[in-house]
Amino acid sequence: MRSLRHARRPRIAVVSPPFLSHAQPLSVLAGALARCGADVYFVSAPSFAPLARSADVEFVSLTVTPNANTGIAQRTRQGARETERLEEFLRSTRDGAIAALLTQARHRGEDMLSDPAGVLAGIRTLDARLSPDWYVVDQLSYPVTLALHCLGLRYATFCPGHPTYVPQTADTLFGVPYAWPRAIQPAPGRVAELRRAARANDAAFTERFAEVVRTHTPTVRTPVRAFALASRQAVLFNYPRFEWLPEHPRNGTRFLYGGHCAPAAEPSPGEAWEGLVHRLRETHSRLVLVALGTFLSARDDVLAKLVRGVLLEVPEAAVVVAAGERAAALAHLSAPNVHIADVVPQRWLLGRADAMVHHGGNNSFTECVASGTPALILPFSSDQFSIAHDAERAELAVCLDPSRLGPRMAGSAVRQLLTDLPAGLSRWTREVGRRGPDWMASRLMRAMGGIVEDH
Protein backbone atom coordinates (compact mmCIF):
# COMPACT_ATOMS: atom_id res chain seq x y z
CA MET A 1 0.00 0.00 0.00
CA ARG A 2 1.29 3.45 -0.89
CA SER A 3 2.66 5.68 1.90
CA LEU A 4 0.20 8.26 3.26
CA ARG A 5 0.45 11.96 4.09
CA HIS A 6 -1.95 14.73 2.96
CA ALA A 7 -5.59 14.15 1.99
CA ARG A 8 -6.24 14.40 -1.77
CA ARG A 9 -8.50 13.07 -4.49
CA PRO A 10 -8.11 9.32 -5.08
CA ARG A 11 -6.46 8.32 -8.33
CA ILE A 12 -8.12 5.33 -10.03
CA ALA A 13 -7.21 3.39 -13.18
CA VAL A 14 -10.15 1.61 -14.85
CA VAL A 15 -8.69 -1.10 -17.12
CA SER A 16 -10.86 -2.47 -19.94
CA PRO A 17 -10.26 -5.19 -22.51
CA PRO A 18 -10.72 -4.11 -26.17
CA PHE A 19 -14.35 -5.24 -26.45
CA LEU A 20 -17.11 -2.66 -26.85
CA SER A 21 -19.55 -4.66 -24.71
CA HIS A 22 -17.05 -4.44 -21.83
CA ALA A 23 -15.53 -1.02 -22.47
CA GLN A 24 -18.88 0.74 -22.72
CA PRO A 25 -20.16 -0.05 -19.19
CA LEU A 26 -16.68 0.37 -17.71
CA SER A 27 -16.41 3.84 -19.25
CA VAL A 28 -19.79 4.74 -17.74
CA LEU A 29 -18.49 3.55 -14.35
CA ALA A 30 -15.30 5.57 -14.88
CA GLY A 31 -17.38 8.69 -15.41
CA ALA A 32 -19.40 7.97 -12.26
CA LEU A 33 -16.19 7.53 -10.22
CA ALA A 34 -15.00 10.92 -11.50
CA ARG A 35 -18.28 12.49 -10.38
CA CYS A 36 -17.62 10.98 -6.95
CA GLY A 37 -14.45 13.05 -6.70
CA ALA A 38 -11.75 10.77 -8.13
CA ASP A 39 -9.12 11.43 -10.77
CA VAL A 40 -9.85 8.61 -13.21
CA TYR A 41 -7.83 7.10 -16.04
CA PHE A 42 -9.67 4.93 -18.55
CA VAL A 43 -7.11 2.37 -19.75
CA SER A 44 -7.86 0.45 -22.94
CA ALA A 45 -6.91 -0.05 -26.59
CA PRO A 46 -6.62 3.13 -28.73
CA SER A 47 -9.96 2.52 -30.50
CA PHE A 48 -11.78 3.19 -27.22
CA ALA A 49 -10.41 6.68 -26.56
CA PRO A 50 -13.79 8.24 -27.55
CA LEU A 51 -15.45 6.44 -24.62
CA ALA A 52 -13.07 8.17 -22.22
CA ARG A 53 -13.92 11.54 -23.78
CA SER A 54 -17.65 10.81 -23.42
CA ALA A 55 -17.11 9.96 -19.75
CA ASP A 56 -14.98 13.10 -19.25
CA VAL A 57 -12.00 11.14 -17.93
CA GLU A 58 -8.41 10.82 -19.09
CA PHE A 59 -7.56 8.11 -21.61
CA VAL A 60 -4.46 5.91 -21.36
CA SER A 61 -3.58 3.45 -24.12
CA LEU A 62 -2.87 -0.17 -23.16
CA THR A 63 -3.88 -3.27 -25.14
CA VAL A 64 -4.25 -6.33 -22.92
CA THR A 65 -5.26 -8.98 -25.48
CA PRO A 66 -4.88 -9.50 -29.24
CA ASN A 67 -8.61 -10.22 -29.49
CA ALA A 68 -10.76 -7.19 -30.12
CA ASN A 69 -14.29 -6.09 -30.98
CA THR A 70 -14.89 -2.41 -31.57
CA GLY A 71 -18.60 -2.81 -32.30
CA ILE A 72 -18.89 -5.28 -35.16
CA ALA A 73 -16.70 -8.29 -34.48
CA GLN A 74 -16.17 -9.36 -38.08
CA ARG A 75 -15.05 -5.87 -39.12
CA THR A 76 -12.57 -5.40 -36.31
CA ARG A 77 -8.97 -5.65 -37.48
CA GLN A 78 -7.28 -8.57 -35.74
CA GLY A 79 -4.88 -11.40 -36.42
CA ALA A 80 -5.58 -14.39 -38.65
CA ARG A 81 -5.79 -16.79 -35.71
CA GLU A 82 -8.28 -14.56 -33.87
CA THR A 83 -10.42 -14.30 -37.02
CA GLU A 84 -10.29 -18.08 -37.49
CA ARG A 85 -11.48 -18.67 -33.92
CA LEU A 86 -14.33 -16.19 -34.36
CA GLU A 87 -15.55 -17.94 -37.51
CA GLU A 88 -15.32 -21.36 -35.82
CA PHE A 89 -17.33 -20.06 -32.87
CA LEU A 90 -20.05 -18.61 -35.12
CA ARG A 91 -20.35 -21.93 -36.97
CA SER A 92 -20.68 -23.79 -33.67
CA THR A 93 -23.67 -21.68 -32.58
CA ARG A 94 -25.66 -23.31 -35.39
CA ASP A 95 -25.33 -26.67 -33.63
CA GLY A 96 -26.87 -25.60 -30.34
CA ALA A 97 -25.86 -24.64 -26.82
CA ILE A 98 -23.36 -27.35 -25.88
CA ALA A 99 -21.53 -27.16 -29.23
CA ALA A 100 -21.03 -23.41 -28.81
CA LEU A 101 -19.91 -23.73 -25.19
CA LEU A 102 -17.45 -26.52 -26.01
CA THR A 103 -15.95 -24.41 -28.78
CA GLN A 104 -15.54 -21.52 -26.36
CA ALA A 105 -13.89 -23.91 -23.89
CA ARG A 106 -11.36 -24.98 -26.53
CA HIS A 107 -10.57 -21.35 -27.38
CA ARG A 108 -10.36 -20.12 -23.81
CA GLY A 109 -6.59 -20.23 -23.30
CA GLU A 110 -5.84 -18.22 -26.45
CA ASP A 111 -8.76 -15.84 -25.95
CA MET A 112 -8.28 -15.00 -22.29
CA LEU A 113 -4.66 -15.52 -21.33
CA SER A 114 -2.61 -14.97 -24.47
CA ASP A 115 0.34 -12.92 -23.13
CA PRO A 116 0.38 -12.75 -19.31
CA ALA A 117 4.07 -11.78 -19.15
CA GLY A 118 3.55 -8.90 -21.60
CA VAL A 119 0.51 -7.65 -19.68
CA LEU A 120 2.46 -7.87 -16.41
CA ALA A 121 5.18 -5.67 -17.91
CA GLY A 122 2.56 -3.25 -19.23
CA ILE A 123 0.80 -2.89 -15.87
CA ARG A 124 4.14 -2.45 -14.08
CA THR A 125 5.05 0.40 -16.46
CA LEU A 126 1.59 1.94 -16.17
CA ASP A 127 1.73 1.86 -12.38
CA ALA A 128 5.17 3.47 -12.29
CA ARG A 129 3.95 6.28 -14.57
CA LEU A 130 0.52 7.00 -13.07
CA SER A 131 0.76 5.70 -9.47
CA PRO A 132 -2.97 4.93 -9.13
CA ASP A 133 -4.21 4.38 -5.60
CA TRP A 134 -6.28 1.50 -6.86
CA TYR A 135 -7.57 -0.11 -10.01
CA VAL A 136 -10.87 -1.35 -11.38
CA VAL A 137 -10.34 -4.42 -13.56
CA ASP A 138 -12.76 -6.30 -15.79
CA GLN A 139 -13.11 -9.77 -14.29
CA LEU A 140 -12.63 -11.40 -17.70
CA SER A 141 -9.27 -9.64 -18.13
CA TYR A 142 -7.47 -12.51 -16.42
CA PRO A 143 -3.92 -11.38 -17.34
CA VAL A 144 -4.62 -7.95 -15.83
CA THR A 145 -5.99 -9.45 -12.61
CA LEU A 146 -2.98 -11.75 -12.45
CA ALA A 147 -0.60 -8.82 -13.00
CA LEU A 148 -2.24 -6.79 -10.21
CA HIS A 149 -2.02 -9.84 -7.93
CA CYS A 150 1.67 -10.37 -8.76
CA LEU A 151 2.53 -6.71 -8.19
CA GLY A 152 0.57 -6.46 -4.94
CA LEU A 153 -1.58 -3.57 -6.23
CA ARG A 154 -4.99 -2.72 -4.79
CA TYR A 155 -7.90 -3.34 -7.11
CA ALA A 156 -11.65 -3.85 -7.31
CA THR A 157 -13.17 -6.43 -9.63
CA PHE A 158 -15.90 -5.46 -12.10
CA CYS A 159 -17.88 -8.50 -13.29
CA PRO A 160 -19.39 -7.66 -16.72
CA GLY A 161 -21.50 -10.82 -16.99
CA HIS A 162 -23.47 -13.22 -14.87
CA PRO A 163 -22.38 -13.27 -11.19
CA THR A 164 -21.31 -16.93 -11.49
CA TYR A 165 -18.44 -15.68 -13.66
CA VAL A 166 -16.80 -15.29 -10.23
CA PRO A 167 -17.10 -18.94 -9.06
CA GLN A 168 -17.74 -19.30 -5.35
CA THR A 169 -17.70 -23.08 -4.94
CA ALA A 170 -15.79 -26.00 -6.46
CA ASP A 171 -18.97 -27.05 -8.30
CA THR A 172 -19.26 -23.68 -10.05
CA LEU A 173 -17.28 -24.02 -13.27
CA PHE A 174 -16.52 -21.12 -15.56
CA GLY A 175 -18.19 -21.77 -18.92
CA VAL A 176 -20.95 -24.03 -17.55
CA PRO A 177 -24.37 -22.39 -17.00
CA TYR A 178 -25.47 -22.63 -13.38
CA ALA A 179 -29.06 -23.05 -14.64
CA TRP A 180 -30.82 -23.35 -18.00
CA PRO A 181 -33.92 -21.63 -19.41
CA ARG A 182 -36.94 -23.85 -19.98
CA ALA A 183 -36.57 -23.87 -23.77
CA ILE A 184 -33.00 -25.18 -23.64
CA GLN A 185 -32.44 -28.36 -21.66
CA PRO A 186 -29.34 -30.23 -22.94
CA ALA A 187 -29.00 -33.97 -22.42
CA PRO A 188 -27.23 -34.88 -19.15
CA GLY A 189 -24.43 -36.63 -21.03
CA ARG A 190 -23.68 -33.50 -23.05
CA VAL A 191 -23.67 -31.35 -19.91
CA ALA A 192 -21.25 -33.82 -18.31
CA GLU A 193 -18.99 -33.49 -21.38
CA LEU A 194 -19.06 -29.71 -21.00
CA ARG A 195 -18.26 -29.94 -17.29
CA ARG A 196 -15.22 -32.15 -18.03
CA ALA A 197 -13.94 -29.60 -20.54
CA ALA A 198 -14.54 -26.74 -18.09
CA ARG A 199 -12.79 -28.57 -15.25
CA ALA A 200 -9.78 -29.22 -17.50
CA ASN A 201 -9.71 -25.50 -18.37
CA ASP A 202 -9.89 -24.64 -14.68
CA ALA A 203 -6.83 -26.77 -13.93
CA ALA A 204 -4.92 -25.51 -16.99
CA PHE A 205 -5.57 -21.85 -16.19
CA THR A 206 -4.56 -22.33 -12.57
CA GLU A 207 -1.30 -23.95 -13.62
CA ARG A 208 -0.58 -21.15 -16.08
CA PHE A 209 -1.22 -18.59 -13.33
CA ALA A 210 1.16 -20.50 -11.06
CA GLU A 211 3.82 -20.58 -13.76
CA VAL A 212 3.62 -16.80 -14.24
CA VAL A 213 3.89 -16.22 -10.49
CA ARG A 214 6.83 -18.63 -10.12
CA THR A 215 8.68 -17.04 -13.05
CA HIS A 216 8.11 -13.34 -12.40
CA THR A 217 7.21 -12.86 -8.71
CA PRO A 218 8.22 -16.06 -6.88
CA THR A 219 7.62 -14.58 -3.41
CA VAL A 220 3.95 -13.89 -4.17
CA ARG A 221 1.21 -16.32 -3.13
CA THR A 222 0.07 -18.58 -5.96
CA PRO A 223 -3.71 -18.36 -6.58
CA VAL A 224 -5.52 -21.51 -5.49
CA ARG A 225 -7.90 -21.27 -8.43
CA ALA A 226 -7.35 -18.96 -11.39
CA PHE A 227 -10.97 -18.30 -12.36
CA ALA A 228 -11.85 -17.44 -8.76
CA LEU A 229 -9.06 -14.86 -8.40
CA ALA A 230 -10.76 -11.55 -7.68
CA SER A 231 -10.44 -8.57 -5.37
CA ARG A 232 -10.54 -9.36 -1.65
CA GLN A 233 -11.97 -5.87 -1.05
CA ALA A 234 -14.79 -5.31 -3.55
CA VAL A 235 -16.44 -7.22 -6.38
CA LEU A 236 -18.94 -5.22 -8.39
CA PHE A 237 -21.64 -6.98 -10.43
CA ASN A 238 -23.37 -5.25 -13.31
CA TYR A 239 -26.50 -7.24 -12.47
CA PRO A 240 -29.64 -7.27 -10.29
CA ARG A 241 -29.48 -9.05 -6.93
CA PHE A 242 -31.91 -11.89 -7.51
CA GLU A 243 -32.62 -13.77 -4.30
CA TRP A 244 -31.94 -17.20 -5.84
CA LEU A 245 -28.39 -16.44 -6.98
CA PRO A 246 -25.64 -18.47 -5.26
CA GLU A 247 -24.44 -17.09 -1.94
CA HIS A 248 -21.00 -15.53 -1.62
CA PRO A 249 -18.50 -16.63 1.03
CA ARG A 250 -18.28 -14.46 4.13
CA ASN A 251 -14.63 -13.53 3.78
CA GLY A 252 -14.80 -9.76 4.23
CA THR A 253 -15.18 -8.97 0.52
CA ARG A 254 -17.89 -6.46 -0.38
CA PHE A 255 -20.10 -7.94 -3.13
CA LEU A 256 -21.99 -5.06 -4.75
CA TYR A 257 -24.88 -5.58 -7.17
CA GLY A 258 -25.25 -2.43 -9.24
CA GLY A 259 -28.29 -3.48 -11.28
CA HIS A 260 -27.22 -1.85 -14.55
CA CYS A 261 -24.48 0.37 -15.97
CA ALA A 262 -26.37 2.66 -18.33
CA PRO A 263 -26.13 6.44 -17.98
CA ALA A 264 -29.07 8.33 -16.51
CA ALA A 265 -29.70 10.13 -19.82
CA GLU A 266 -28.75 8.88 -23.27
CA PRO A 267 -27.83 11.67 -25.74
CA SER A 268 -29.63 11.91 -29.05
CA PRO A 269 -27.95 9.89 -31.82
CA GLY A 270 -28.71 12.67 -34.31
CA GLU A 271 -31.38 13.90 -36.68
CA ALA A 272 -31.32 10.81 -38.90
CA TRP A 273 -32.29 8.44 -36.08
CA GLU A 274 -34.73 10.94 -34.57
CA GLY A 275 -36.41 11.27 -37.96
CA LEU A 276 -36.48 7.51 -38.58
CA VAL A 277 -38.20 6.72 -35.29
CA HIS A 278 -40.67 9.58 -35.84
CA ARG A 279 -41.62 8.21 -39.28
CA LEU A 280 -41.99 4.65 -38.00
CA ARG A 281 -44.13 5.80 -35.09
CA GLU A 282 -46.38 7.84 -37.36
CA THR A 283 -47.41 4.75 -39.33
CA HIS A 284 -47.08 1.91 -36.78
CA SER A 285 -48.35 1.59 -33.24
CA ARG A 286 -45.52 -0.70 -32.11
CA LEU A 287 -41.74 -0.59 -32.45
CA VAL A 288 -39.60 -3.73 -31.98
CA LEU A 289 -35.82 -3.60 -31.68
CA VAL A 290 -33.81 -6.67 -32.76
CA ALA A 291 -30.13 -6.82 -31.75
CA LEU A 292 -28.10 -9.97 -31.11
CA GLY A 293 -24.88 -8.30 -29.95
CA THR A 294 -21.61 -7.43 -31.61
CA PHE A 295 -20.62 -11.05 -32.32
CA LEU A 296 -23.93 -12.78 -32.95
CA SER A 297 -25.27 -10.19 -35.37
CA ALA A 298 -23.41 -12.42 -37.86
CA ARG A 299 -26.28 -14.94 -37.50
CA ASP A 300 -28.25 -13.33 -40.32
CA ASP A 301 -30.39 -16.47 -40.67
CA VAL A 302 -31.83 -15.87 -37.19
CA LEU A 303 -32.26 -12.14 -37.84
CA ALA A 304 -34.21 -12.91 -41.01
CA LYS A 305 -36.53 -15.33 -39.17
CA LEU A 306 -37.17 -12.70 -36.52
CA VAL A 307 -38.07 -10.01 -39.03
CA ARG A 308 -40.39 -12.32 -40.98
CA GLY A 309 -41.99 -13.57 -37.78
CA VAL A 310 -42.75 -10.10 -36.43
CA LEU A 311 -44.21 -8.99 -39.77
CA LEU A 312 -46.43 -12.11 -39.89
CA GLU A 313 -47.68 -12.07 -36.31
CA VAL A 314 -47.50 -8.37 -35.37
CA PRO A 315 -48.45 -6.46 -38.54
CA GLU A 316 -48.94 -3.24 -36.58
CA ALA A 317 -45.23 -3.24 -35.61
CA ALA A 318 -42.21 -1.65 -37.23
CA VAL A 319 -38.84 -3.35 -36.76
CA VAL A 320 -35.34 -1.91 -36.33
CA VAL A 321 -32.55 -4.47 -36.78
CA ALA A 322 -28.87 -4.25 -35.80
CA ALA A 323 -27.29 -6.51 -38.42
CA GLY A 324 -23.57 -5.73 -38.14
CA GLU A 325 -21.51 -7.04 -41.03
CA ARG A 326 -24.62 -8.78 -42.42
CA ALA A 327 -26.62 -5.60 -43.03
CA ALA A 328 -26.07 -5.79 -46.81
CA ALA A 329 -27.08 -9.47 -46.88
CA LEU A 330 -30.37 -8.57 -45.20
CA ALA A 331 -31.05 -5.46 -47.28
CA HIS A 332 -33.77 -7.32 -49.22
CA LEU A 333 -35.88 -7.29 -46.03
CA SER A 334 -35.84 -3.48 -45.85
CA ALA A 335 -39.30 -1.96 -46.17
CA PRO A 336 -41.26 1.05 -44.90
CA ASN A 337 -41.75 -0.88 -41.64
CA VAL A 338 -38.29 -2.54 -41.49
CA HIS A 339 -35.05 -0.65 -40.99
CA ILE A 340 -31.81 -2.65 -41.30
CA ALA A 341 -28.62 -1.01 -39.97
CA ASP A 342 -25.11 -2.18 -39.23
CA VAL A 343 -25.15 -0.59 -35.78
CA VAL A 344 -27.96 1.04 -33.82
CA PRO A 345 -28.10 3.42 -30.81
CA GLN A 346 -29.44 0.64 -28.61
CA ARG A 347 -29.73 2.43 -25.27
CA TRP A 348 -31.47 5.40 -26.91
CA LEU A 349 -33.85 3.15 -28.85
CA LEU A 350 -34.83 1.23 -25.72
CA GLY A 351 -36.53 4.38 -24.47
CA ARG A 352 -38.69 4.31 -27.60
CA ALA A 353 -39.20 0.59 -28.33
CA ASP A 354 -42.14 -1.51 -27.11
CA ALA A 355 -40.10 -4.74 -27.06
CA MET A 356 -36.62 -6.01 -27.81
CA VAL A 357 -35.28 -9.29 -29.11
CA HIS A 358 -31.73 -9.96 -27.89
CA HIS A 359 -29.23 -12.74 -27.23
CA GLY A 360 -29.12 -12.60 -23.44
CA GLY A 361 -25.95 -10.54 -23.25
CA ASN A 362 -25.58 -8.82 -19.90
CA ASN A 363 -25.72 -5.27 -21.25
CA SER A 364 -28.85 -5.90 -23.32
CA PHE A 365 -30.52 -7.71 -20.43
CA THR A 366 -29.81 -5.08 -17.77
CA GLU A 367 -30.55 -2.17 -20.13
CA CYS A 368 -33.95 -3.70 -20.92
CA VAL A 369 -34.69 -4.08 -17.22
CA ALA A 370 -33.58 -0.51 -16.47
CA SER A 371 -35.73 0.91 -19.29
CA GLY A 372 -38.73 -1.33 -18.54
CA THR A 373 -38.62 -2.94 -21.99
CA PRO A 374 -40.01 -6.50 -22.31
CA ALA A 375 -37.69 -8.89 -24.13
CA LEU A 376 -37.53 -12.09 -26.11
CA ILE A 377 -34.18 -13.73 -25.33
CA LEU A 378 -32.41 -16.11 -27.73
CA PRO A 379 -29.27 -17.33 -25.88
CA PHE A 380 -26.44 -18.73 -28.02
CA SER A 381 -23.32 -19.00 -25.81
CA SER A 382 -21.31 -17.85 -22.77
CA ASP A 383 -23.38 -16.77 -19.77
CA GLN A 384 -26.45 -16.06 -21.91
CA PHE A 385 -28.17 -19.27 -20.77
CA SER A 386 -27.80 -18.32 -17.09
CA ILE A 387 -29.07 -14.81 -17.81
CA ALA A 388 -32.03 -16.17 -19.77
CA HIS A 389 -32.87 -18.48 -16.86
CA ASP A 390 -32.83 -15.56 -14.41
CA ALA A 391 -34.90 -13.38 -16.75
CA GLU A 392 -37.55 -16.11 -16.99
CA ARG A 393 -37.57 -16.80 -13.27
CA ALA A 394 -37.90 -13.09 -12.48
CA GLU A 395 -40.72 -12.85 -15.06
CA LEU A 396 -38.84 -10.23 -17.07
CA ALA A 397 -38.70 -11.95 -20.46
CA VAL A 398 -39.52 -15.04 -22.47
CA CYS A 399 -36.86 -17.32 -23.93
CA LEU A 400 -36.65 -19.48 -27.06
CA ASP A 401 -33.94 -21.75 -28.44
CA PRO A 402 -32.36 -19.98 -31.46
CA SER A 403 -31.26 -23.31 -32.94
CA ARG A 404 -34.94 -24.40 -33.18
CA LEU A 405 -36.47 -21.07 -34.05
CA GLY A 406 -39.17 -20.64 -36.67
CA PRO A 407 -40.55 -17.30 -37.89
CA ARG A 408 -44.07 -17.83 -36.55
CA MET A 409 -42.72 -19.04 -33.20
CA ALA A 410 -40.62 -15.88 -32.90
CA GLY A 411 -43.44 -13.60 -33.99
CA SER A 412 -45.92 -15.20 -31.58
CA ALA A 413 -43.48 -14.70 -28.69
CA VAL A 414 -43.13 -11.00 -29.56
CA ARG A 415 -46.90 -10.64 -29.79
CA GLN A 416 -47.22 -12.23 -26.34
CA LEU A 417 -44.79 -9.67 -24.93
CA LEU A 418 -46.72 -6.77 -26.46
CA THR A 419 -50.10 -8.11 -25.38
CA ASP A 420 -49.25 -9.09 -21.81
CA LEU A 421 -46.25 -7.39 -20.20
CA PRO A 422 -44.03 -9.76 -18.16
CA ALA A 423 -45.26 -9.74 -14.57
CA GLY A 424 -41.91 -8.94 -12.96
CA LEU A 425 -40.91 -6.05 -15.20
CA SER A 426 -42.28 -3.12 -13.19
CA ARG A 427 -40.92 -4.51 -9.90
CA TRP A 428 -37.38 -5.08 -11.18
CA THR A 429 -37.29 -1.84 -13.18
CA ARG A 430 -37.97 0.03 -9.94
CA GLU A 431 -35.39 -2.09 -8.12
CA VAL A 432 -32.52 -1.55 -10.54
CA GLY A 433 -33.56 2.08 -10.99
CA ARG A 434 -32.52 2.70 -7.38
CA ARG A 435 -28.98 1.62 -8.28
CA GLY A 436 -26.95 2.06 -11.46
CA PRO A 437 -23.49 3.56 -12.14
CA ASP A 438 -23.60 6.41 -9.60
CA TRP A 439 -24.74 4.00 -6.87
CA MET A 440 -21.94 1.62 -7.91
CA ALA A 441 -19.31 4.37 -7.84
CA SER A 442 -20.25 5.70 -4.41
CA ARG A 443 -20.37 2.22 -2.85
CA LEU A 444 -17.12 1.26 -4.54
CA MET A 445 -15.35 4.38 -3.29
CA ARG A 446 -16.55 3.55 0.21
CA ALA A 447 -15.48 -0.10 -0.05
CA MET A 448 -12.03 0.82 -1.35
CA GLY A 449 -11.42 3.45 1.28
CA GLY A 450 -12.80 6.60 -0.32
CA ILE A 451 -10.47 9.56 0.05
CA VAL A 452 -6.82 8.54 0.23
CA GLU A 453 -3.77 10.31 1.62
CA ASP A 454 -1.10 11.93 -0.49
CA HIS A 455 2.30 10.25 -0.76
DSSP helix count?
Answer: 16
Can you tell me the CATH superfamily of the largest domain? Answer: Glycogen Phosphorylase B
CATH fold-type name of the largest domain: Rossmann fold
Structural class: alpha/beta
Strand order of the largest sheet: 4-3-2-5-6-7-8
* Count of distinct structural domains: 2
The oligomerization state is single chain
CATH class of the largest domain, anyone?
Alpha Beta
The CATH architecture of the largest domain: 3-Layer(aba) Sandwich
Low-confidence stretches: 1-6, 71-76, 451-455
Instruction: Indicate the radius of gyration in whole angstroms.
Output: 22 Å
How many individual β-strands? 15
Outline the structure in words:
- With 455 residues, this protein is an alpha/beta fold.
- The protein has 2 domains: 9-259 and 435-450, Rossmann fold (3-Layer(aba) Sandwich), CATH 3.40.50; 271-433, Rossmann fold (3-Layer(aba) Sandwich), CATH 3.40.50.
- The relative contact order is 0.14.
- The chain is globular.
- It has a 7-stranded parallel beta sheet, with helices on both faces.
- The N and C termini lie close together (11 Å).
- The chain is built from 16 helices and 15 strands.
